[in-house]
Design goal:
The complex is a heterodimer of chains A (260) and B (105).
Chain A: H1 17-46, H2 59-84, H3 88-117, E1 119-124, E2 129-136, E3 143-151, H4 160-163, E4 170-175, E5 179-184, H5 191-218, H6 224-227, H7 229-259
Antiparallel strand pairs in A: 1-2, 1-5, 2-3, 3-4
Helix pairs in contact in A: 1-5, 1-7, 2-3, 2-7, 3-5, 5-7
Chain B: H1 3-34, H2 41-63, H3 71-96
Helix pairs in contact in B: 1-2
Classes of the chains: A alpha+beta (260), B mainly alpha (105).
Chain lengths: 260, 105
């Protein structure tokens, strides 16, 4: 028995079933990301004055990633439009571009994560703080070398934009005997990084998941075009709706995490 | 697809491209506006969110075809929006007993 309403519309909804399904799924996704956004707001407004990090993320890199995702949205919609116009070759080209852009996005995000995981805040026994990217951290060596700077007050590490903190970094060789505590800029470092990694990590998982589906429909799944082109076009529309939602989430994540 | 339908669809494709350009420009404006000192940081936040809402409208309305969708989808989304707004209002009550000044070192 064939699955009903894969192409023809149901009389009661006026839609084919997969479309109702994807919108129900996207509604649940709105609530998932909504819960995390509300957590972000609560953490931010509850943070003491001057302790909510600003200027911690690389805006040009984030901007490029935003442009990459927006471009992938247009290639997705153009891939679907190509099928509507019966141009399978053009569909293949556009969706190949979508896949490449998805991989570019994940690569750029990985670069940003790597930047954070090699960034250390080091509390020194004399009360100062050293902050910067690790150059050498050999456990056998008696010095840790970072490219960074010293600050007297930990607060100077938070709002980099308001304090106009010196961005000049130099190579610092810190004796291990002087180190009180040394911590990476991972999700455990503070609430900002916890929500940053949670939101962007979940979003990146969606990008990867969407890319796997689009990759399948671009490769082996595209055989359906020969036997049932309308159903295949509908599948592309459904995967496209998910992809646009992923873009939609990033449209809010980018200003919230990088700019404000 | 008839010639008329093909032409109609080409018109849609042109519109997608205009939306794409608008999204690119919107992104650049968002970044540019974040560097403008409005005097109050709340204004910077408001400007960024208003532009983000505009971009979201373009993506949802045109790329996701919400401006010409069936009533059932609208009903579903209105239902979702109500719950989403409820979620945001929950913050207000949570904020009232949020233990502030606890992360200071």
């Amino acid at each position: 028995m064939d699955i009903p309403y894969t192409v023809e519309t149901r009389p009661d909804t006026g839609l084919y079933n997969a479309k109702v399904g994807i919108w129900l799924f996207l509604a649940s996704e709105v609530m998932l990301f909504g819960a995390l956004f509300s957590s972000y707001i609560l953490l931010r407004v509850g943070s003491p004055d001057g302790y909510w990090p600003r200027g911690w993320l690389n805006v040009p890199v984030g901007t490029v990633n935003t442009l990459v995702l927006i471009t992938s949205s247009i290639t997705t919609v153009m891939a679907w439009a190509s099928l509507k116009m019966n141009q399978f070759g053009r569909f293949k080209v556009f969706h190949a571009c979508t896949l490449l852009l998805a991989m570019t996005f994940v690569c750029i995000k990985s670069y940003e994560y790597h930047d954070k995981f090699t960034h250390y805040e080091i509390a020194l026994k004399d009360g100062r703080f050293a902050d910067g990217h690790v150059v050498s951290n050999d456990p056998k060596a008696d010095h840790v070398v970072i490219s960074g700077r010293y600050v007297q007050d930990r607060k100077d590490l938070y709002d980099l934009e308001a304090r106009k903190a010196p961005r000049h970094h130099e190579e610092l060789s810190i004796p291990r005997s002087q180190i009180e505590k040394m911590e990476r800029y991972g999700p455990w470092h503070n609430t900002y990084l916890a929500i940053y990694f949670t939101l962007t990590g979940l979003h990146a998982l969606h990008v990867i998941g969407g890319a796997i589906v689009i990759g399948f429909l671009w490769g082996p799944g595209s055989k359906l075009w020969k036997t049932d082109p309308e159903r295949f076009t509908n599948r592309i529309e459904i995967s496209g709706l998910f992809w646009h939602f992923v873009d939609l989430v990033w449209i809010f994540l980018f200003p919230v995490l990088y700019l404000i | 697809m008839t010639a008329h339908a093909q032409e109609d669809f080409t018109h849609h494709v042109r519109r997608y491209l205009y939306i794409f350009y608008a999204l690119l420009v919107g992104t650049l404006i968002t970044v540019g506006a974040s560097y403008i000192p409005f005097g109050n940081h709340a204004i910077n936040i408001a400007v960024a969110l208003v532009i983000a809402c505009g971009k979201a409208f373009l993506v949802a309305g045109f790329f996701m075809h919400l401006i010409s969708e069936r009533k059932m989808i609208y009903g579903l989304l209105i239902f979702t929006a109500c719950f989403f707004l409820g979620l945001m209002f929950l913050i207000l009550s949570a904020y009232a007993d949020f233990p502030r000044m606890t992360v200071t070192h």
